[in-house]
Amino acid sequence: MNQEEIREEHEYIGFFTATILKWQRLLKPHKYKQIILDSLKYLVEQKKVKVYAFVIMPNHIHLLWKINEPYLLEDVQRDFLKFTGQAMYRDLLKNHKDILALFRVDLKDRKYQFWKRNSLITFLYYRKTIEQKLDYIHNNPVQGIWESAESVDKYPYSSYNFYEFDDTTIYPFLTHYMEEFE
Description:
Alpha-Beta Plaits
């Protein structure tokens, strides 16, 4: 790639969704949510990504993130999903073998799979679209079948309080999306 080429993943915030295989509610326990959080924190500390927003639901996650140069989206995404999958595998193997059996796939390259293949990434070109996705992410826990909290500010596994209350203490790895417009 020459210097004139611009990759969308370096230029625009991406709306990323990853779903647990068969929509199993594997991410319901705190310890698996913590694996996701620790991995996001690591990626930010390694300067591979900027994370602008997130929500961790029982069977899927949504992120607003941007891949930093020289890293590539497919590599960062693969490593993130592989690391989190392996960490959950190790815990399930040790503590919950009955649940582990739900994720047996017996493919050529793996016996178990936790994330569905072909996670969704959509690049967001406009501030209004970013704000729509931000609202969607933050309202996800209180909508539809989820009702995981009585209000968005009570759901601890999202970036809502970072934005609404300027709380930078809980998830210090977050970057405000408005930084993209300064």
